[in-house]
Amino acid sequence: MASATSLTTLEDEVNCPICQDILREPVTIDCGHNFCRGCLTRYCEIPGPGPGEQPTCPLCKDPFCPGGLRPNWQLASVVENIEKLKLAPPSGLEEDLCEEHEEKIYFFCEDDEKQLCVKCREALEHRTHTVRFLKDAADPYREQIHSCLESLKNERENIQGIQSRGDQRIRILLTQVATKRKRVISEFEHMCQFLERQQYLILTQLEELDGDILKQKNEFESLVQSEISRFNALISELEEKLKHPERKLLKDIRSTLFRCETRKCKKPEAVSPDLGERIRDFPQQALQLQREMKMFLDNTWICFLPPLLIYWVIFEKLLFELDYEPAHIFLDPQTSHPKLLLSEDHQRAQFSYKWQTSPDSPQRFDRAICVLAQVGFVGGRHTWVVTVDLAYGGSCTMGVVSQNVRRKGELRLRPEEGIWALRLAWGFVSALGSFPTRLSLEENPKQIRVSLDYEVGWVTFSNATTQEPIYTFTASFTGKIFPFFGLWGRGSSFSLSP
């Protein structure tokens, strides 16, 4: 009795003040109090009384830094030993005896989820129930546990994959921002006082972007670690369950499996679309400065033109380096639908109701009137311009597709099928997402610039004449990505240029 009382006292000492349960992955904060890592993480996610204020300890209300959590390994070892003592059967008692009849337990009632001795088996309340021997009853549940473990491990691998891709995106974005900052500094150092104020403003914006990326990086890592901890706890629970004999394995087995089977991972996003748009559209913010410089040059005395023209050339070079690499696109006749007429230089296509004599092949589209570029991309930042000429209510589709996109039968134009595309029709423009989105534009562009940033996962469409952005898809690319084009309508055509 004294031993049981001591164990209960020890359990009270290692309880989490938040969940009132035994500590899981105990961590210590600045004031010295201990909490479950998961409980404290969720507590820190609750908005505070004011923006930017540090969270306070749930016990003493002293402020602490969420990033300064220290794992308490000694306390974790104490918790582990207490749990082992709780699992150990009391000395001098038979573990597999029925509490009511003190007979050895042989059976398991499927209907009541109870373990039965011979006398319990013959009782009236169990005569019509499904009763099996312990081993026969436990085997199907073991299979379910193995299946559930496999599913949970797959989910954990998925979230770890998301973490890896998210970290890669963050590194690329930080590198791009750092490169832009260095180029802006090196070029603007040689410009006159007219540009000094503009330099300061642009650098300030880059510093804000850098800080926002690092902030989202911390939030992303915290959420990913929280998800991994949840799945680690479930996997540990099931692995521990498998070590138990049949009687303990079958205890609360259905509720345990239900909790594990219904637990799906949250798939966090490393970079928010809003932040991505701000980084991607940063070169556009310099267009106002470009217009001011041109106006300044147009109104400057001839004696001042030579040095200022030098600065102008430097500035044009800066804008070009911050943009994408022009790509020379050629259409692939091996993939072209028979209703498309390709020019001899493979840079122009026209729709025709008359089918061309084209040999059938696995690479050729047979129902969707589409064509791919001859060369795809496995990295880098590339851009090309599509000049569209629509007649009689036709339409033109453009974008990028994955290498294994469907070539035969019906083709559904959406990201889930490996297609990120924009449709330009007579009178409207639509982004072909999971659900097509009709875009509100002041005028339908005749020249569309398509820009691909493979590592970050952006497919950006903009008006090639006015440089105004139209739409951006965000994806995680794997394998080769090909420029993609579709055409419909008598007399409709498109041509390509870098």
Automatic annotation (TrEMBL):
Keyword hit for Ribonucleoprotein: no
Keywords, sorted A to Z: Cytoplasm, Metal-binding, Zinc, Zinc-finger
Residue stretches making up the B box-type domain: 93-134
GO cellular component: cytoplasm
Domain RING-type: 16-61
GO MF annotation list: zinc ion binding
The keyword Metal-binding is annotated on this UniProt entry: yes
Residue span(s) of domain B30.2/SPRY: 309-498
One GO term (biological process): host-mediated suppression of symbiont invasion
Main location, first listed in the record: cytoplasm
Cell compartment(s), UniProt: Cytoplasm
Entry similarity comment: Belongs to the TRIM/RBCC family.
Designated name of the protein: Tripartite motif containing 10
Gene expressing this chain: TRIM10
